[in-house]
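Lay summary. Proteins are chains of building blocks that fold into shapes, and those shapes determine what they do. In this project we predict the shape from the chain. Here is one chain we studied, written as its sequence of building blocks.
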Amino acid sequence: MLRIVKTMALHGTLPLALLLFWQIGSTHFWWNTYILPPPADVAHTLIQLAASGQLARHVAVSVMRVALGFFIAAGLALPLGILLGLSRSAGAFCRIALEFFRNVPPLALLPMLILWFGIGETSKLVIVVLATFFPIFLNTLAAIARPDCSLLELGRVFGLSRLAVFWHLRLPMAIPSIYTGLRIGLGYSWRSLIGAEMIAAAAGLGWLILDGEEMARPDVVLAGIFTIGALGFAADALLRLLGRRCRRFTGGE
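And here is the predicted shape, written in a compact code that computers can read:
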């Protein structure tokens, strides 16, 4: 219990200090409080949105888009990263195309996505998938393509087949990097949400922020930002918990 209290105190010191600075600055008018409303105003707006049911509706829509986009991106990036990591010829064949698309911002494709997929959910999901794909893919590719050669040689000495070497040596060595890629990709899923919900959305936290901007309501904008940050933090915490459980299951801890 004491350890939990110490951990919470350590992690909560900086956020509380920033919140205190924000409140003091608003109270003493160090800045225009219309542009940056006091924390109490933002909290009041959050409570109003929650009480009216709007916040729950926007959260549900955004979580669905992020979750679906993340799982689609992971389902594409993981096998492709493993395949290209195992085959140098396949990696060389796809390298130029992948490097090209990696450097194209997903929002740059927005006009074409609208032409191809319309203004429905598909375009929004494609934005999230494009933003999420490459962090997962690149971490997987790098981990699979650059294993510990001494361990692989040891496996061959003991007569392991290529499949056994991959399954028992190469893949376990790559899991930490793959796990890092998944965490980064999940963060990119939330970061792409604003761009995804610019496409004729009628609900979602990105839409809430853009609507707050159009209505000149910085308190609504900040409420949406804090909600996205809190949800992203919770999603990452869940992924870290799953990662710890997987390491225990596979004997990593």
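What the prediction tells us: The chain has a mean pLDDT of 83.
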